[in-house]
Design a protein that fits this description.
Length: about 250
């Protein structure tokens, strides 16, 4: 009987150890790097945000991990321009969730906030902003202006919800083939016109330089001509004869 009590005592100790380990396991959670934890205790969401690492929680609390790293959302849309032409755009949005807003986002939007808030708003803004520009702005270097305008609108829309937009990128723009050819020909014509203006300006400057050079020579000749009078011409030969008379005769 004594061995039975000893075995029962050992079983009780082991059970207590397992119970303690279970409580410790249920009372702790690990939040990965680049994430925050939101505590949901049977429908009651705590405003205390769990930081990365090991955190103590109330047993039975469900912890949802939200990434606060920069992420990319890609969107492909066929949208009209101000001329009514339909263009295909590949747009990327770089965004991140602000850590302090994670609990509020979970309570108001849910854990899949990207598809509920960001994606529809991005599609709407792409369509609205593109309708303000002509197709040539999307094809030329001015596309960066279009991207900045999209970023301004999406940033103002997402910021109140605790989501920070970092950048909008226009990855690719596909225009109708005929429009692409027309824009390329127009750009080439504009570049050719700029080259011709440069050549004309250079020739005009060269002609002006030659005119000024010729004017300088003419002015010099005029000054010299005015300085040579008939009296000077008569005086120079007489002076030459006088000098020859005074010269000693060689022996």
């Amino acid at each position: 009987m004594r061995w039975l009590f000893a075995a029962f005592g050992g079983f009780r100790v082991g059970f207590l150890v397992l119970l303690v380990l279970l409580v410790v396991y249920l009372s702790t959670t690990v939040v990965p790097a680049g994430h925050v934890g939101v505590q949901d205790f049977f429908g009651r969401v705590s405003d205390r945000i769990l930081s990365p690492g090991i955190n103590l929680i109330v047993p039975g609390t469900h912890v949802l991990k939200f990434s606060v790293q920069t992420r990319e959302l890609k969107e492909t849309a066929a949208v009209p321009t101000s001329e009514g032409l339909v263009v295909n755009l590949d747009v990327s949005l770089l965004f991140r969730l602000r850590p302090e807003a994670a609990a509020r986002v979970y309570k108001t939007v849910g854990s899949r906030f990207e598809g509920v808030v960001i994606d529809p708003q991005l599609r709407s803004i792409i369509r609205d902003v593109t309708a303000e520009y002509e197709a040539k702005f999307l094809y030329s270097a001015s596309r960066e202006v279009v991207a900045q305008n999209m970023f301004k609108h999406i940033h103002a829309t997402l910021a109140p919800r605790g989501i920070e937009a970092e950048q909008v990128l226009l990855r690719a723009v596909q225009l109708p083939p005929l429009l692409t050819t027309a824009i390329q020909e127009k750009l080439q014509a504009e570049q050719q016109a700029q080259r011709m203006r440069f050549v004309l300006d250079r020739e005009r400057q060269e002609a002006e330089r030659k005119r000024m050079e010729a004017q300088g020579i003419a002015d010099f000749q005029s000054i010299v001509a005015r300085g040579i009078s008939p009296e000077l011409l008569k005086w120079r030969p007489s002076r030459s004869r006088t000098s020859s008379r005074r010269a000693p005769t060689p022996r």
